Sequence to fold (170 residues):
Amino acid sequence: MLRLIGNRKETLKASFALFFLVFMTWTGLQESEATSTSDQEHPTFCCAVNCMDGRVQDPVANFMRKFCSAKYVDMINEAGVNKTLADNPDSGIAKYLVINIKEEIKISQKHGAKIVAIVGHYECGGNPAGKEEQIEHLRKAKETVEAFGLNIQVILLWVEKDFKTVVLIK
Fold:
């Protein structure tokens, strides 16, 4: 008799576990389907060509999510990227970096990105120039990216020395 009760308890536990698993799987699939359909109808990607410096990753991503009303930010990272795109983008190693950046922006466009930011920041190891000179690099970098002919809006961002404040450069 005790064995039968023990089996009944185990059977109830197993039934409940199976029900719970089926319920969670079913509701999870419903959410996934709704999200993917919504994302396809309303692209939620934007792109940032950013410095590799870890201090600027989160502030830039947060700014871009708000500015573009995006859920995801495709990050293309390279040390001192604004200088790379500004100075001699057709020669030396910069040529290959610029080709790679162009291809990665194209991939971001496949995700639905309509806006790409080019980023400079305070105390950049890859571009140790001051703020005003880096802003000039950003402007030249914008010309380089626009010359790709990718039909994407290009904006310029500067991350201040607090590594929290992100400024849209006009």
Q: What stands out?
A: The longest helix spans residues 2-41.
